[in-house]
Amino acid sequence: MNLRHRFNQNLNRIEVSMIRQFDQAISDIPGILKLTLGEPDFTTPDHVKEAAKAAIDANQSHYTGMAGLLELRQAAAEFVAEKYNLSYNPMNEILVTIGATEALSASLVAILEPGDKVLLPAPAYPGYEPIVNMVGADIVEIDTTENDFVLTPEMLEKTIIEQGEKLKAVILNYPANPTGVTYSREQIQAFAEVLKKYPIFVLSDEVYAELTYTGEPHVSIAEFLPEQTILIQGLSKSHAMTGWRIGLIMSCAEIVAQVIKSHQYLVTAAATAMQYGALEALKNGKDDALPMRHEYVKRRDYLIEKMTGLGFGIIKPEGAFYIFAKIPDRYPQDSFSFLQEFARKKAVAFIPGAAFGRYGEGYIRISYAASMETIEQAMVRLKEFMAEYGAD
Questions:
Q1: Looking at the domain that runs over 7-41+287-388, which CATH code has it been given?
Q2: How far is CA 207 from CA 60, 238, 265, in A?
Q3: Three-state SS for 2?
Q4: What's the average model confidence in pLDDT over 284-290?
Q5: pLDDT digits (tens, 9 = 90+) for 145-201
Q6: What pLDDT, in 10s, does the model give residues 224-282?
Q7: How far apart are alpha carbons 382 and 342 in whole angstroms?
Q8: Where is the Aminotransferase class I/classII large domain (predicted)?
């Protein structure tokens, strides 16, 4: 019996992420150096690992409540209060999720209906649009390429007005993947002044909040717009805990009461031992990101120097751990083909800009969450490739 026509037809609108497709396509190249995924090369801090081990030894193997351990939610509330001047009640305004991805999924499923529209500054992380599409809603991109990837309040309001009543939400991601763009307090306040005029949700993906390089603390839009904002946080980047899959949803009680419904039927609850590790990370590892951040700055600056010297156009990233570089005009602007050839000839992998939507074409993304040794070798090979390509 052929059941192909019986699937959810919205699945026809999505594909496996091009980031994963490309990473898998080049993984069998012998000796490949991969600067592809947002996967810190640092290990999870030892005190976090010990806490999870202790939880397992203490037979903490049962379900937590759907919202997660109360102690973890309390630690999360204290963490964001100290770091970002935010106030959340751990009893009813915080959910523990299975990574930021599930946090996004649970939130979008809870607020979107077929035909709704969601604004997204572009180029953007490709994990948002498929979730929106699966529930029958649509992404409306705001092109930021002509403004050094920086969204402005004027661009935001213009698009809100154009989209009308079907507009349900806007997704903000800062520091941004793939561009590394982040925003000052004044810029965030200006966004809030626009958004508070309209009955729309604001999903603010701030998982890179601890990885900012401006010298100023990260500012969350939730500080200015608490009744509309669904704040997405997590420990994958700040504490090198990608495989632990612990994320957080923070919002007002009215919103959380609805989102917990989709969260419940998607996953029930996050893994218990992982939550105890996260509790330790947030309670006693508030500054665990600092040494990583120091190293990321050195890697970023090294990459900018080397790639600028090769003719790549780079807007200096102020957060996260990615370089989003414009391919020099004299080379093909098909980022997928360009990087396929580079991988095949020099055994180095970056991510094609096209993976981040139509406004990412002509760019490449390099993750500097790899070791400096790997980065240095990759730059030697890139220089060789560029010279040989020009000689063809």
A1: 3.90.1150.10
A2: 27, 8, 24
A3: coil
A4: 97
A5: 999 999 999 999 999 999 999 999 999 999 999 999 999 999 999 999 999 999 999
A6: 999 999 999 999 999 999 999 999 999 999 999 999 999 999 999 999 999 999 999 99
A7: 8
A8: 32-382
Task: In whole angstroms, give the CA distance from residue 327 to residue 160.
Answer: 32
Strand partners, 326: 313, 363
Q: In whole angstroms, what is the distance from residue 224 CA to residue 72 CA?
A: 24
Given a contact cutoff of 8 angstroms between Cβ atoms, the answer to whether 137 and 118 are in contact is yes
Lookup: tokens for 34: 């991969």
| CA distance linking residue 328 with residue 228, whole number of Å | 41
- Residues 192-208 pLDDT 10s: 999 999 999 999 999 99
CA distances, 25 to each of 342, 351, 354, 360 (Å): 13, 11, 15, 20
State how far the Cα of 210 lies from the Cα of 175, in Å rounded to an integer: 9
Between strands 363-367 and 351-352, the pairing is antiparallel
| Start-end of H helices in 85-229 | 99-111, 128-134, 153-163, 185-195
In angstroms, rounded to a whole number, what is the distance separating the alpha carbons of residues 4 and 188? 46
Where in the chain do CATH 3.90.1150.10 domains reside? 7-41+287-388
Query: Is 240 in contact with 44 (CB distance < 8 Å)?
Result: yes
Query: What's the whole-number mean pLDDT along residues 122-140?
Result: 96
Label residue 215 exposed, middle or buried (CB < 10 Å: 0-12, 13-18, 19+). Answer: exposed
Is 121 exposed, middle or buried, given 0-12, 13-18 or 19+ CB atoms closer than 10 A?
buried
145-148: Cβ within 8 A, 24+ apart: 145/359, 148/181, 148/315
Give the CATH class of 61-284: alpha beta
**Residue 283 burial (CB count, 10 A):** 17
DSSP 331: S
What is the distance between the terminal CA atoms of the chain, rounded to a whole angstrom? 53
For residues 283 and 65, the answer to whether their CB atoms sit within 8 Å is no
Ranges of CATH 3.40.640.10 domains, the chain: 61-284
Structure tokens at 136: 């029958």
Question: How would residue 117 be classed by pLDDT, with cut points 50, 70 and 90?
Answer: very high
What length does the chain have?
A: 392
